[in-house]
Amino acid sequence: MDHRAFAEKMVNGGLLAAAQAEPTRAGAGGRVSWGKHFLAASRLTPAAFADLMARTEGLPRASLDAMRRGTSLAGEFSVPFLHEVGLFPYRDADGSPRLAAADPFDADAIDAVAVTLGGAVTLEIASFEDVEIALDAAVRAEAGEGTDGAGEAGRGEDAGDNSDSLRDLASGAPVVRALDEVFDQAVALRASDIHVEPLGRDVQVRVRVDGVLRVIPAPRAAPARALVSRIKILAGLNIAEHRQPQDGRMRITVRSRDFDVRVATMPTTRGEAAILRLLDRGGRLVAFADLGFNARDRSVLTDKLTQPHGMIVVTGPTGSGKTTTLTAALASLNDSTRKILTVEDPVEYEIPGVNQSQVRPAVGLTFATALRAFMRQDPDVIMVGEVRDPETAKIAVQASLTGHLVLTTLHTNTAAAAVTRLVDIGVERYLIASTLSAVVGQRLIRTLCVDCRRPVTVGPSDAERNPRIVGLGLAPGTAIFEPVGCERCGGTGYRGRRAIFECLEVTEAVRREILGGADDAAIERAGIAGGMATLVDDGKARCLEGVTSVDEVFRVAALR
User: Fold this and answer.
1) Reported pTM
2) Which residue, 297, 294, 299, is CA-closest to 541?
3) N or C: which end of the chain has fewer CB within 10 A?
4) 40-51, pLDDT tens digit by residue?
């Protein structure tokens, strides 16, 4: 087909401006895809543009159904080449070779494919979308995607035999667009995590928004294996390995915002799943005063942070805001008189003036090795992203004993349990009692949507029969708020999160309990006697302020 004659017909038909008859620039290697240029300039849909070409040039119009029912001949060519030139070769039910072309103006590509197929080929017109879908389906079939999902995770030694085909499929435009759409939806919803979960050949996508998972529309153009493979390619993982978990990282830009993405894959009986954690590189540092501590806890921590030595531990589950709290504390200490060093996994917030390092186990840089090196760097304050092993714990304790302020995190359910956890990983109780200054336990609670929250009053029956009302000790007549749901909050009744805390100050009474071998409960009682408010106590205060609901407090914290 002559692109000039077709352009003239489009101009005469009012579908193309005369100035748009020629592209302003060529593509890669100086090549012009006239079909893509005319499609973009005309503002027609791909299907309508294909209909126009077939009607104008008197060529048959290939349907996606016919292309998929036919026998694909794509395996005789480079699939990326076919994607680039917009061609799909196949045999129809009669065995006749056909060539569906989305860009029939590329005579060189059409001739090359026709020669390979033997010359006698029927040329048809197809849309770019249909060609991409047909090519992806052909690659998927060749890669074994048509088998049931149950065999996906436990495939034998030939798990990587089709890795090239799988890579081609994962690099195809529909899969690329599908993953971009997932990222866009996640960022629009303010999601912290994306869960891509296989359901056989289909896929379920869930995002964690304000700490709670919700399902979002799954991309229809991308099967589970292709979508996960695309994620693995971007994260630098081995796409041929489906039997072992893998961890990786990538950087993406969505809606003009830069994100670091931590990726973890896991084989399941239905296929390979991928979890992606989004870390906003442009995230604003939270000021220590804005974290939300009550007056007593803020006073205790301010005092401990200004001490020249000691250890402050922040505890809580993954995703409870521990790093945000530590970073805010460091930022409050950051001035020209202090040398502050951190080792993190990964560095989530960059603090000007602070020397931050990221662990790299592949080259031997672990928390423990970094800590040992820090001791030769003349630091005043050291932050360790997490105490995971006995070696790291012991070096951190030694650092605090030798005149350094150490900040770190542990995974425990309560502040008092941090003592037991340190004992479990090999730190002697006398060392804990000598070095530990304070432990902060925290959780993130969803905050009520201010546009739709509803005030309610605790009634007599609520105060007697509702165990959660009873647990918080809310008396009849107490005014609180409950969620409703509106367009602004996506119907959930909540929008945004904030932290609730419990701050265990290691007083002389608490220190005696630690040295005496007391359990978590006894240490907690000593802390409460010294003025500590538990997570539930802090949650109750937030309920009375109208910040959150009773149900939300008990979603993240338990009565003890």
Assistant:
1) 0.68
2) 294
3) C
4) 777 677 888 888
